[in-house]
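Structure first, sequence second, as always.
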């Protein structure tokens, strides 16, 4: 018996500043593509139905759930994953430094999504209140930290610099 033909669509996107040409099965999510095709496993597969935020990426500068996006929708887009935050020489992004300094992570499962949501927050609101930080991170679930360290990390990062999502 013949194997069914698997159709793949060509896409071109920019991921963490590198242009990528990929052949993508229409059924696969952007999260699948980033993790399985590009080896960018920082975006985590948690709930896989849009609830937990562990898969958050920046899509043309806006935070989105990669589990809710088809891989073919990456065509033409500029994507940032957590792997794109640190400098090329490995120097951590100021938000990553602040998360580390304030113990804003334990198991780390939520961390990539938290970082990208925090970056989006600070890009739009450079001096947030504590309540605004809590609201800004409200779409990302953390089962470890109790959130206070995360909030402290973002508030401290806000005091230390300016941020953008490009
Ligand atoms: S894995 Fe996408 S929101 Fe939970
Ligand atoms: S650090 Fe474990 S889920 Fe947030």
């Amino acid at each position: 018996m013949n194997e069914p033909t698997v159709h793949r669509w060509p896409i071109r996107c920019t991921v963490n500043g590198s242009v990528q040409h990929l052949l993508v099965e229409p059924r696969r999510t952007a999260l699948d593509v980033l993790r399985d095709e590009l080896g960018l496993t920082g975006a985590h597969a948690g709930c896989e139905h849009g609830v937990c935020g562990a898969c958050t990426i920046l899509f043309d500068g806006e935070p989105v759930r990669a589990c809710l996006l088809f891989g073919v929708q990456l065509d033409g887009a500029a994507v940032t994953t957590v792997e794109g935050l640190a400098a090329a020489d490995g120097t951590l992004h100021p938000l990553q430094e602040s998360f580390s300094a304030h113990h804003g992570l334990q198991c780390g499962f939520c961390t990539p999504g938290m970082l990208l949501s925090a970056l989006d927050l600070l890009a739009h609101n450079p001096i947030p209140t504590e309540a605004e930080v809590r609201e800004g991170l409200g779409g990302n679930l953390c089962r470890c930290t109790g959130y206070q360290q995360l909030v402290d990390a973002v508030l401290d990062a806000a005091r230390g610099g300016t941020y953008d999502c490009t």
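Margin note: Residues 9-84 form a domain with the Ubiquitin-like (UB roll) fold (CATH 3.10.20.30).
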